[in-house]
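A.,

Following up on our hallway conversation. Structure tokens first:
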């Protein structure tokens, strides 16, 4: 990383409640590939800065603040607020106010409606999705389709209008879903390259020393959040989608079952190349791939248990 990359701004937007931070010279989220190639001239340059307000970090912040509100209301946490400084003086902001502020601003800042006018905003590539970030220095990056908003859907589902969430998850299924993982970038994006080859060190800066680590290769851990988001909305507000959703989840997880059985490590890899092709330069087995699939299985188990309980009640009702 270059020296300027160490100069980052971190804070809370007082107008939206969104956590923000980073810079275009750093990469502060899980998409943290820093260029390494002297040959291609990418050493010290981040491939995916994702500064501003990254969607999954806003969701995680909302989840934490909501939890503090709940703890305080139950008498299990003694503090109800934090202080922000205005003109050098502390001003009290309750956790409830912060929680409500994020809630009020999320959809109107992140949602790209299905009927949005692309001619009026040429940065829009895909409609009916949630932005990957708000306020990125590389302003086009806000509008890229990536697999990060399903993370926010799982940890803070209350932020999302269910019908919008379902439409956006449909876009993930159509454009990003691979055999084992999710593409880390829309294949229609100019920066997409689905094959990770860290051993290549040539003149092509887009891929040299694995610069495209999060620009297309299909990571497994995020597919767990995609499946869980589908299960959540189908089992709560969109019950007519539940049967088809269960079939999809079972179909996807069956491929992971096969992968575990044939793996010499008895596990799941970090990622695959395009369309599920093995990636020799990635980790052959990784803990968070396994753990996020286990989370999806756990949620599926709970959906089955709840559904069976509801059916039993229906049968016994006169």
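Then the amino acids I'd put at each of the 318 positions:
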């Amino acid at each position: 990383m270059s020296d300027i990359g160490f100069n980052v701004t971190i804070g809370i937007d007082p107008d939206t409640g969104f956590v923000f931070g980073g810079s275009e010279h750093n990469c502060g989220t899980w998409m943290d590939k820093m260029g390494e190639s002297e040959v291609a001239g990418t050493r010290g340059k981040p491939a995916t800065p994702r500064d501003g307000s990254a969607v999954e970090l806003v969701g995680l912040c909302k989840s934490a603040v909501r939890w503090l509100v709940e703890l305080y209301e139950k008498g299990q946490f003694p503090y109800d607020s934090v202080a922000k400084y205005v003109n050098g003086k502390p001003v009290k902001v309750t956790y409830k106010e912060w929680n409500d502020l994020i809630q009020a601003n999320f959809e109107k800042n992140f949602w790209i409606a299905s009927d949005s006018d692309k001619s009026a905003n040429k940065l829009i590539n895909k409609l009916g999705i949630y932005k990957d970030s708000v306020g990125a220095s590389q302003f086009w990056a806000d509008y890229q389709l990536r697999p990060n908003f399903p993370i926010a859907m799982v940890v803070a589902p209350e932020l999302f209008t269910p019908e919008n969430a379902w439409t956006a998850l449909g876009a993930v299924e159509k454009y990003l879903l691979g055999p084992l993982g999710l593409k880390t970038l829309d294949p229609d994006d100019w920066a997409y390259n689905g094959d990770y080859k860290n051993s290549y060190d040539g003149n092509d800066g887009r891929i040299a020393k694995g610069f495209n680590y999060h620009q297309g290769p299909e990571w497994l851990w995020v597919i767990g959040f995609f499946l869980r988001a589908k299960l959540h909305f189908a089992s709560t507000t969109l019950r007519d989608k539940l049967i088809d959703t269960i079939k999809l989840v079972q179909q996807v997880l069956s491929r992971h079952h096969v992968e575990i059985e044939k793996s010499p490590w008895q596990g799941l890899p970090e990622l695959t190349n395009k369309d599920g092709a093995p990636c020799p330069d990635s980790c052959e087995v990784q803990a968070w791939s396994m753990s996020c699939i286990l989370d999806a299985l756990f949620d599926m188990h709970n959906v089955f248990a709840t559904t069976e309980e509801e059916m039993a009640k229906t049968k016994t009702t006169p």
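The first helix runs from residue 55 to 73. Curious whether your intuition agrees with the design.

B.
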